[in-house]
Amino acid sequence: MKRLLIMILAFASIQASAQDLALFKRVVKELSSARYQGRGYARDGANKAGKYLEKEFRKVGVDKVVLQPFTIDINTFCGAMEMRADGKKLRPGVDFSMREYSPGVRGEFPVYHVDTLGFDPDKLFADLSKPENAGCLVCCDFWFTYKHRKVFSRLQKAGECSNAGLLYTWEAPIKFFKAYGEKVVDKPIIWVTPEAIAGVKNVKVKVDNEFLEDYALFNVIAKVEGERHDSCFVFTAHYDHLGNLGRKVYYPGANDNASGTAAIVTLAERYAKNKPAWDMYFVAFSGEDANLRGSTFFADHPVVPLEQIKYLFNIDMIGDDNPVQYCEVSDAGMKDYQKFEAVNQEQHLFESLNRGALAANSDHYPFAVRGVPCIFLENQEGSAFKHYHTPADNFETVRFDSYEPVFKLVTGFIGK
After folding, report:
1. Sign, CA torsion 292/390/30/27
2. φ and ψ of 130, to 5 deg
């Protein structure tokens, strides 16, 4: 009888795990589909995804779901997106992309390639004042411009130099970073691969941007009531992503961060079916890719006092297969971090936990700096990570290896 009971319990555990994974995959697939156009801030992509999540939380049986509205200013690129280099057509999202705070640009421009080996700022500005370089696009490796950002920031400003804009080279796959799109600089800045621009003398560009002011977004907040209400656990993930690059290209964001969002839906289902000791909140943030705007708004306007949060788990990009799990822990969260490590070792979930320095890189940060115990989980450097912030981060490239270990790590820690 004892052996039979063990077998029954083991089978039930396997079945529950399989159901969790099936729900996880279904939510990832849905959120990364063309229906939501990359869950960005134009074409209503993010808000459509938020409404979908509201329904999913209700389906899994949570006690309450509310939407927390807020607004942002954000730059978007949903119109024309064309570029030719010496007559060769370049592919948006593959050969070139836009700096998130770039204005639109239309025209034909000579290209000035910066001499990085014999770099001399005075010579650079003298060259750019020559008639043959008037109205050019200045081309240079991004990391070099970052190293000399005081010089190159002048080239972004009207009246500082006669250049029309900048071309930042970045090794393929080309990225689109949108975190600081709440402003627009004076001159266009285009990301481009070195292969696409090497030796090019002339480019023709047609790019449209639209700056959205007071664009309405919302966080989706679900609650499962526990036996006690004096403390709670909070599970967070951002459901927004980069949206569109022109009319045809969008960023599916299967790993970033449909995966984390799907994980908190499955956690909500688990605790809805198994009443927890404390209240559980599941918060899907919008505005993360616009500089943590949704989580910052929540931290400033919490639906539960921040001091009542026993732990906040922020799950971001776990759709990968690295056997080492990256994490960040707030100062307040370090008090029980050894228990977290113990769960991983006892259950043999990941080869190790790689704890990095706390950074403003995801939605745990606004809580961490306010003294909330936080643990941030992100699976880095796996086979899916190379597609980060590219159109190739889709349901075909996302991986499911990390989901179950993350799920067990979090629930096991709460159990302790």
Report:
1. negative
2. -75, 145
Provide CB contacts within 8 A for 51, sequence distance 6+.
none
Q: Indicate if the pLDDT at residue 215 is higher than 70.
A: yes
Q: How far is CA 172 from CA 54, 82, 145, 175, in A?
A: 37, 18, 18, 8
pLDDT band at residue 19 under the 50/70/90 scheme: low
DSSP E strand stretches across 25-101: 64-76, 81-85, 88-89, 96-98
Residue 349 confidence class, pLDDT cut points 50, 70, 90 = very high
Tell me: the pLDDT tens digits for 357-416?
Answer: 999 999 999 999 999 999 999 999 999 999 999 999 999 999 999 999 999 999 999 998
**pLDDT single digits (tens) 257-315:** 999 999 999 999 999 999 999 999 999 999 999 999 999 999 999 999 999 999 999 99
Cβ proximity of 226 and 275 under 8 Å: yes
What SS3 class is residue 190? strand
Between CA 376 and CA 267, with CA 394 as vertex, the angle to 5 degrees is 40
Q: Which of 134, 291, 343, 105 is nearest to 207 (CA)?
A: 105
Q: Find out whether 266 and 328 touch, Cβ atoms under 8 Å.
A: no
What does each C-alpha distance from 361 to 84, 155, 191, 316, 335 come to in angstroms?
Answer: 34, 28, 21, 10, 22
Predicted TM-score (pTM) of the model is 0.93
Read out DSSP for 274-343? S--SEEEEEEEES-GGGTSHHHHHHHHS-SS-GGGEEEEEEE----S--SEEEEEE-TGGGGGHHHHHHH
Under 8 Å between Cβ of 219 and 53: no
Distance, in Å, from the CA atom of 355 to the CA atom of 351, rounded to the nearest integer, reads 13
In order of 23, 83, 253, 255, 391, the CA distances from 388 in angstroms are 23, 23, 8, 8, 9
**Cα–Cα distance measured from residue 102 to residue 166, given in angstroms and rounded to the nearest whole number:** 10
Both tokens of residue 137? Answer: 């696009």
